[in-house]
Amino acid sequence: MNDVTKHATEVIERYRMKAGVPKSEVARRLDMTRETLSRGLNQSREFTFFEIALLAAYFNIPLSELFDTNAILRAMPEATAKMLVEDKQKGRG
After folding, report:
1. What is residue 1's three-state secondary structure?
2. CA–CA separation, 64 vs 73, rounded Å?
3. Is 41:16 a contact under the CB 8 Å cutoff?
4. Each residue's pLDDT tens digit, 76-87
């Protein structure tokens, strides 16, 4: 599991625990199996971006809170990351 997905999953699980919503209820409402949800939250499988977006909407979590910019940059190829940093410094990002 990469750092980006790991961070998002940890945030989602904190929100779920704080809300006191059972995994079975979340899975039912999002039309996924409890096993799929549980494996994602336990980080034995990676959630897809679509699943992360669904979970964020369900718990009303801003996507910006789920995705740590530093983790994203670490996960990207060096050239792409450098380009994004340069664009940001030039005011294009």
Report:
1. coil
2. 14
3. yes
4. 676 676 777 888
Neighbours of 52 (CB within 10 A): 22
69-8-76 Cα angle (round to 5): 40
CB 42 within 8 A of CB 31: no
Residue 55 and residue 47 in contact, taking contact as beta carbons nearer than 8 Å: yes
Rounded-to-integer distance, Cα 78 and Cα 67, Å: 18
Tokens (6 digits) for 53: 């977006």
CB atoms inside a 10 Å sphere around CB 21:
14
Per-domain residue ranges of the chain: 3-89
CATH of 3-89, one of 3.40.50.1110, 1.10.260.40, 1.10.10.10, 1.20.140.10: 1.10.260.40
Its pTM stands at 0.72
